[in-house]
Design goal:
By secondary structure, the chain is an alpha/beta fold. 24% of the residues lie in helices and 32% in strands. Pathway: Cofactor biosynthesis; pyridoxal 5'-phosphate biosynthesis.
Length: 190
């Protein structure tokens, strides 16, 4: 199995290290042709407007969207989630991939200094609580009817799934706990 990591910005190395720790080969996705050799893709955190600009410049936006619409499993964390979303409440003109039927609000928990971590129950990955690290995180403010909510914090979804797409408002790659990545890998292997 080969998992791609959208290698534009953000926590690329951290996701790569986690996947390699799990024995998974990784591909740093920088060009459309990289999408042809992967079994799933991670869209890491970063700055969502920058992601879009670079995706467009590298002709990756449409190619990635087509792959996702056709079933390529994806996991978006933080800004990656924003990129996957259908709507951005506080930036309605920002273009997104529109493959996850959610509305998000960018930087909803505040600025960098308001970043925090907390432990939550996520039943789909086991009984033990999971440390969720929020860094200038988005909030999911609305979900479509086919979106499953796997975890919440303060009554807001923080981990959702729709078809082949996982979306997280937090950064699982910044923990030592591989369970979120393991869950994603199960989705990639069918």
């Amino acid at each position: 199995m080969k998992i791609g990591i959208l290698a534009i910005q953000g926590s690329i190395v951290e996701h790569k290290n986690m996947l390699e720790r799990l024995g998974v080969e990784t591909v740093l996705v920088k060009k459309p042709e990289h999408l042809e050799i992967i079994d799933g893709i991670i869209l890491p955190g970063g700055e969502s407007t920058t992601f879009f600009t670079i995706l467009e410049n590298r002709l990756l936006f449409d190619a990635l969207r087509e792959k996702l619409v056709n079933g390529l499993p994806a996991m978006g964390t933080c800004a990656g989630l924003i990129l996957l979303s259908s709507r951005i409440e506080n930036h309605p003109d920002q273009k997104t991939l529109k493959v996850l039927d959610i509305t998000v609000s960018r930087n909803a928990y505040g600025r960098q200094r308001e970043s925090f971590s907390t432990y939550v129950k996520i039943p789909v990955i086991g009984d033990r609580e999971y440390e969720c690290i929020f860094i200038r995180a988005p909030q999911i403010v609305e979900i479509g009817r086919n979106v499953k909510v796997h975890a919440t914090f303060n009554d807001r979804p923080i981990f959702v799934e729709e078809n082949n797409i996982l979306g997280l408002t937090f950064h699982p790659e910044l923990t030592d706990d591989p369970r979120i990545h393991e869950y994603f890998l199960k989705r990639c292997s069918g």
